[in-house]
Amino acid sequence: MTLDQLRIFVAVAERGHMTKAAELLGISQSAASAAIRSLEQQHGVQLFNRVGRNIELAQTGRRFLPEAKAVLERAAAAHNVLEHVSQTITGSLSIAASQTIASYWLPRRLASFHEAYPAVRLSVTIGNTRQVETNVLDGTADFGLVEGRTESDILRRAKVDVDRLMLVVAHSHPEIAEVSRGHPDIRELRWIIREGGSGTREVLEDLARREGISFADLRIFLVLPSNEAVRQAVEAGAGATIISRLVVERAVAEGSLRSVPIELPKRDFAMITHRDR
Q1: CATH fold of 165-266, please?
Q2: What is the mean pLDDT of residues 136-146?
Q3: Counting Cβ atoms within 10 Å, is residue 242 exposed (0-12), middle (13-18) or buried (19+)?
């Protein structure tokens, strides 16, 4: 008994006509008749009664029909499994991501990627923008995700999202002097910042440049290696910081941090890849 014999049997049973079943399956009428005859002879049964030019299922054929259909359905399911396996994308993917992206933006997207490509192994390294750029350049990472500027001209850069920045202080922080409405006097603030090479530090550097202030003249109180450390220091009243909304929006909503009105540019979250890989 073969799958082809079963397909022919089911087609003939459902149409009650040998020629119509053969046309449906794209075979000759004689090939369809031979397959049914061979199936009957192999098992010593009569599957059809011949009535003139038409045929109808015999009692044995009626009992066999649902079983034959079930076998064909299972065979189709098995075929689909093998097709899926042959088309499954496998391998590994190494990602370097800056801290804000890795901690607050990337996790949900990694989960969605894993749902779509479960056979791909993912690894993520976290650093600041400059470290991520280095990882992509030296091939340690297949691609990078950054929020700061990149320097190398052999990197491709594509925007994947937009981030909004906030200037925040502790809820108990004294009122901040302004040089003009909506422009706090950044020279009077005590700053908690990230290390050199981080995207948020670049934003403060750019702000000082726009205000005509030397970065060296700002009151830098603490330089910390992570967004979480910066946020906690600010909540403790150590000073002010400019940081991604993603990092502090809950603390602002809960009242432990206060947002200071200021115009800050939005910044891109970008994917970077090596032009030659």
Answers
A1: D-Maltodextrin-Binding Protein; domain 2 (3.40.190)
A2: 95
A3: buried
